[in-house]
Known about the structure:
Elements: H1 2-26, H2 44-53, H3 57-110, H4 115-149
Helix pairs in contact: 3-4
Amino acid sequence: MEENKKNELELGKSKDLDKAEEIKKSGKLEIFYGRQFSGPLPPPEILESYEKTLPGAADRIFTMAEKEQEHRQKIENNMVENDNKNRKAGRRSSTFLMCLIIITGAILSMYNKKIMPIASLITVLGLAIGPLFFENWKNDDTENKDGESE
């Protein structure tokens, strides 16, 4: 059944092309035929014509596509590595900041300051727990957007 459909399509195309040739010869209309493709490699027919025109062209096209893929993978790996480095630096900075605030609160409590140590402990708790809530909230928003787009 698929072969019949394929043959019908080919016949339809050839009939259309015959009609187009007749119209073109009569001078009534000019028809331009073009093909479009996307991706790093052209379709096999075009690749074959490149190879006939310039021997070795197909190999050069494949080499170019392979180099492009390697380049994209390197860029993606660099992005992941940089993201990991930034996260580690953020964790170190926040840990240092929390320790500094705890030490400041301890020093203030030694000097009989009542409000400041409590404020510093609340700040530390906010710094420690806040990112967890923010990360969960951010993930929930991302899941909602993904769910809406499907």
